[in-house]
Write a structure and sequence with these properties.
The complex is a heterodimer. Chain A is built from five helices and five strands. By secondary structure, chain A is α+β, with helices and mostly antiparallel strands. Chain A has two domains: about 70 residues, Ubiquitin-like (UB roll) (Roll); about 70 residues, [2Fe-2S]-binding domain (DNA polymerase, domain 1). Chain A has a five-stranded mixed β-sheet, with helices on both faces. In chain A, a hairpin with a 2-residue loop joins strand 1 and strand 2. Chain A is globular and about 45 Å long. Chain B has 20 helices and 29 strands. The chains are: A alpha+beta, B alpha+beta. At the A-B interface, helix 1, helix 2, helix 3, helix 4 and helix 5 of A face helix 8, helix 10 and helix 19 of B.
Chain lengths: ~170, ~750
């Protein structure tokens, strides 16, 4: 029996401990936001946070996260109000959207460590996340925007995790 | 001018290629085929697209498949505009596959041109019915009524009613003839031309389960399908009992499939093929995939089992040294020109590899066969055709097959092939349970409908005035007789045909045992690179500025198009070439050593695109694309500027990825298996600036999914030549030692 905390909630898994975390999240815990792209850690679509660190869930056996605290895309805010999510929405970042959960998770981890990253720092942090549709220019711009939004709310640094860094709800969004 | 006599089937194949928008020229036929066996003859009904709740909320139906091009928004935007409602009051639902919506065909950059009029007509017809309802309620003439923001007004008596209050009565009003409804004056547009954010963006950002791979059906099992690695191969036997004993596995069985056609069919509109293999069905996808590791299959690979890319390349070289099998087009006398001593002639061999689609979301499909009926969830780009094919395979009436269209994590043409619909339907019926079939990335890279490879043996000559005097291309491709492999041919009207007095394109083909098909900007995604690179070579041979050479070429009076041919309009192309020259500062900028600009243009999918790339190449042949300028003419309107810009930027980046990819065959099977062997551009490699300029012209709007892609490859290669003196004639460019930094 493997116990883990996902988005603040205690979960357990009693299947094969070698099962990749990705498939435990998607098919056992019904958290489908984390995506399957390659199964080899080459594309970043499966990026989650394990104790705050960006991690490729497709390469991580669930046994390796035993007793650890995980955050997935569903957990970085209850309602899309994380500054990264707000910036992504404002700048109309996604095209097909399939890579974006992974992009957002990597971006959140970057901003937690480096609140005002340079373009070069963004490249380094985000280079493991592929985007087949080519939204890289807007991703980069949105990271800068998220940094600005966070800087204008200095009491709430840009980490992920339930409860951290939520901006006031915006009305009238579709 | 002579054009080769080609039989009707190959004419359809050749003109089904995307060059110059022939897809559109085929629209009635393509549309009919997209809809499956019975093309809809009936006109569209507003009631099928518009529902208005009593509180005034308008629900519009999005008829095309959303694969990242924001058609989920843009087609309903057209309806909403003419219906005269505010976008904030609009909700959107997806259409199932149903002929009542007209052709639900997502591809060829046709959503805009095919729907620009029909969707506006649907909205206008709905508005007319609401006005009729109000006029009837007030006993006034409809001509005295006007609309704004979802309300009908009768100014004379200062009365108004909301659409919500009128909807029930409006539904009883006669449906106007869509062809005669009055459409808005574009100067009154409130929605068209605005950047509405996709209605699904929030769901994407919060990880909602909106993709095909996320579909869940109660009682669902999961499947993997190990298909024959070689075209036409058959699974003879397998260790099924051992597999069935593995944890979580519920079923394991051989799928015989159906014999594949050997005449290079168009898999897009005809049978996509139902291949042989072994299906493993389990209570979780991981259990099925893990069981596959232990699967042992005895295959009979048949006639394609020895196919090898190295051998194909040798064969191409031999064919190039023999007389060409066919002449596709011949104007003037190229041989006479090449014999003259007052021209400068150059030659070049261009090599185009096969490449794969590699959509970020691997192929998948969920099917539920129950009580003799079938329900399918798919992100198919041609769901109506898929429905017909599935019905045929399972010998069901189409009315017993329900196809739900879901969001696709990228299409690029791969999702236009409905092979997975057949596989999932078959597996579900076999195990009598709902089944979600998911491909691994390896399945996806190795069972594609690949962008077809080829070899182009070019020869051209410029005269003493530096004008293009002769152009010859012996295209060695794949196929047999008059048939090219699907989407692997050459277009007889491709530029510079018609603009150079002595022009000849010939072809020879060799057999191919690999499924090929439409990859974003089919045919153009490779041919534009060859043509615009060779034009550049000729410009340099003539000692002319490459941009100036192109403008002079476009200024040559073209010969007429014959019959149903399509070809580029020189004045529209000249417009974007001049615009991109202006925006990029072509010829006006001093660049450091190792940095240069390159230019290229291409006409495809009815769009006119001219692009300039500034690149820096270092001593290790590592390339940095510093900036790209794109000038585009897709007609009079851009429906959604933000979506349009990002489509163009994305297509540019996609095109660059094509410069570092290759699919090869060994022992009949595809060698490459995952993103490591078939990479795409990473963020650090993408040009940090891609400036997009739309030149609006008085032409009906056309699409943006594809036409921005073809010119970027030659623009970058032309810049590399200017910077280094080395011409890239083989893709992937890694074969010549180049790579992106």
């Amino acid at each position: 029996m493997i116990r883990l905390k996902v988005n603040g909630k205690n979960q357990q898994f009693d299947g094969d401990p070698d099962t990749p975390l990705l498939w435990v999240l998607r098919d056992e815990l019904d958290l489908k936001g984390t995506k399957f792209g390659c199964g080899m850690g080459l594309c970043g679509a499966c990026t989650v946070h394990v104790n705050g660190q960006p991690t490729r869930a497709c390469l991580t056996p669930v046994s390796a996260v035993s007793n650890k605290s995980l955050t997935t895309i569903e957990g970085i805010s209850p309602d899309g109000s994380h500054p990264v999510q707000v910036a992504w929405q404002e700048l109309d970042v996604p095209q097909c959207g399939y890579c974006q959960a992974g992009q957002i998770m990597s971006a959140c981890a970057l901003l937690a460590k480096t609140p005002k990253p340079t373009d070069a720092e963004i490249d380094t942090a985000m280079n493991g996340n592929l985007c087949r549709c080519g939204t890289y220019l807007r991703i980069r711009a949105a990271i800068h925007k998220a940094a600005e939004l966070t800087a204008s709310n200095p009491a709430k640094p840009a980490n992920s995790g339930a409860g951290a860094n939520r901006l006031p709800r915006r009305g009238g969004n579709k | 001018m002579t054009i080769a006599k080609i039989n009707r089937r190959s004419f359809l194949k050749v003109t089904a290629l995307a060059g110059g928008g022939c897809m559109l020229g085929l629209y009635p036929k393509a549309a009919a085929l997209a809809q499956g066996a019975r093309p809809a003859a009936a006109p569209l009904l507003p009631a099928d697209f518009i529902r208005i709740a009593p509180n005034g909320i308008v629900t519009l139906t999005a008829k095309n498949t959303e694969i990242g091009q924001n058609v989920l928004n843009t087609l309903p935007m057209l309806i909403a505009e003419e219906l005269d409602v505010d976008w904030k009051d609009v909700k959107i639902v997806r259409a199932d596959a149903d002929n009542k919506y007209g052709p639900q065909f997502t591809g060829g950059s046709t959503a805009t041109p095919m729907n620009w009029e029909p969707m506006r007509q649907v909205g206008a017809a709905g508005r007319q019915m609401l006005i009729a309802a109000a006029a009837n309620t007030w006993s006034v003439a409809a001509t005295e009524c006007s609309t704004a923001s979802g309300r009908v007004h009768h100014k004379a008596s200062n009365r108004s009613l909301g659409y919500g209050e009128l909807a029930a009565k409006a539904a009883t009003m006669p449906v106007p003839d869509l062809r005669s409804v009055k459409l808005k004056d574009p100067k009154d547009y409130k929605i068209i031309g605005t950047s509405t954010i996709s209605v699904e963006t929030k769901d994407i950002l919060t990880g909602k389960p909106i993709f095909g791979i996320d579909v869940t059906v109660p009682g669902m099992l999961y499947a993997v399908f190990q298909r024959t690695p070689v075209l036409g191969g058959k699974a003879v036997s397998a260790n099924l009992d051992a597999i069935k004993a593995l944890k979580g596995v519920k079923h394991a069985f051989i799928v015989e499939g159906r014999p594949l056609r050997n005449d290079y069919p168009n898999y897009l509109f005809e049978d996509p093929g139902f291949e042989s293999g072994v299906a493993i069905v389990a209570d979780s996808w991981w259990a099925a995939q893990s069981a596959r590791e232990k699967l042992e299959v005895k295959w009979d690979f048949g006639k394609w089992g020895a196919q090898d890319s190295v051998e194909n390349a040798k064969k191409a070289q031999e064919l190039s040294q023999q007389p060409a099998a066919r002449t596709l087009r011949q104007d003037g006398d190229v041989e006479a020109v090449f014999k003259r001593d007052d021209v400068k002639a150059i030659e070049g061999k261009y090599v185009i590899p096969f490449i794969a689609h590699g959509t970020m979301e691997p192929q998948n499909c969920t099917a539920h066969f129950k009580d003799g009926k079938l329900e399918i969830w798919t992100a198919s780009q041609i769901p109506q055709n898929g429905r017909t094919m599935v019905a045929q395979l399972l010998k069901l009436p189409e009315s017993d097959v329900t196809v739900h269209v879901v969001r696709g994590g990228g299409g690029f043409g791969r999702r236009a092939y409905n092979d997975l619909m057949l596989d999932a339907a078959w597996i579900s019926r076999t195990v009598a349970a709902p089944v979600k079939l998911i491909w691994s990335r390896e399945d996806d890279i190795q069972h594609d409908y690949y962008r077809c490879g080829g070899f182009q043996f070019m020869k051209g000559a410029v005269d003493k005035d530096g004008k293009l005097a002769a152009w010859h291309d012996h295209f060695v491709g794949y196929g047999e007789g008059n048939a090219f492999a699907h989407d692997g041919g050459f277009l007889p009207t491709e530029f510079p045909a018609r603009f150079v007095p002595n022009y000849r394109v010939q072809s020879s083909v060799m057999p191919l045992g690999l499924k090929t098909g439409a990859l974003r900007a089919p045919y153009s995604n490779s041919t534009a690179w060859v043509i615009q690179s060779f034009i550049d070579e000729l410009a340099h041979a003539a000692g002319k500025d490459p941009l100036q050479f192109r403008l002079e070429l476009l200024a040559m009076p073209p010969t007429d198009l014959a019959g149903r041919e399509t070809g580029l309009d020189a004045s529209r192309m000249t417009g974007v070439v001049k615009l991109v020259a202006e925006k990029s500062g072509w010829g006006k900028r001093t660049l450091p050593k190792g940095t240069a600009m390159g230019v290229a243009f291409h006409y495809s999918h009815r769009g006119y695109f001219a692009e300039v790339a500034e690149v820096t190449v270092n001593a290790n042949k590592k390339i940095k694309v510093n900036k790209v300028w794109v000038a585009a003419d897709v007609g009079s309107h851009i429906i959604n500027p933000s979506s349009a810009e990002t489509q163009v930027q994305g297509a540019v980046i996609d095109g660059l990825s094509g410069m570092i990819q290759e699919i090869t065959l060994k022992n009949g099977a595809v060698v490459q298996s995952n993103y490591k062997q078939h990479p795409m551009l990473r963020m650090s490699q993408a040009p940090p600036q891609i400036e997009v300029h739309f030149l609006k012209t008085n032409n009906s709007p056309t699409g943006l999914g594809e036409p921005a892609l073809p010119p970027i490859l030659p623009a970058v290669c032309n810049a590399i030549f200017t910077a280094t003196g080395e011409r890239i004639r083989t893709m992937p460019m890694t074969k010549q030692g180049f790579s992106f930094a």
